């Protein structure tokens, strides 16, 4: 899920060791077509604590040197290095485990019980499966990680609060009219 195309996969193979050397992980790679293609790389710190502008700039400079030699995108293109954001994509089993207890949207590469899209609270991982607690379902769903085409966290108050806490901030104080 980190990549969608063979070109994305080639770029990931070039970018992964560079990012790891900087204490970063590549979360996702996408080449977006257009008049001038855009190579979008989402990155995070290996510990999941979030990246800042300096981290993105360091990775951009390091990858530019590698891409200049390897030329993974033909012609002129824009390189965009960014954080995955608060409602981040989930692209590894470790991401699903790290964000246990938070709401996620998951899209499968096949139909299961007449649907491809699922939404619920992440309940961990087990034997290569993502566990998901969905509203109205008594049992926890076991979704094979290999079946997942796309997944991301859902922007909720709980996720915003966790993000603020991780960044050393405080959640907004409740005022009298908010009760």
Automatic annotation (TrEMBL):
Keyword match Cytoplasm = yes
What functional role does this protein have? Required for maturation of 30S ribosomal subunits.
SUPFAM superfamilies on file: YhbC-like, C-terminal domain, YhbC-like, N-terminal domain
> Would I find Iron among this entry's keywords?
no
Spell out the subcellular localization from the entry: Cytoplasm
What does the sequence similarity comment in the record state about its family?
Belongs to the RimP family.
Question: Which domain of life does this protein belong to?
Answer: Bacteria
Gene Ontology cellular-component terms for this entry are: cytosol
Which keywords does UniProt give here? Cytoplasm, Ribosome biogenesis
Q: What gene name is given for the protein in this entry?
A: rimP
Q: Which organism is it from?
A: Maricaulis virginensis
Q: What is this protein called?
A: Ribosome maturation factor RimP
Q: What is its main location?
A: cytoplasm
- The segment(s) forming the Ribosome maturation factor RimP N-terminal domain are 15-87
Q: Which GO terms describe its biological process?
A: ribosomal small subunit assembly; translation
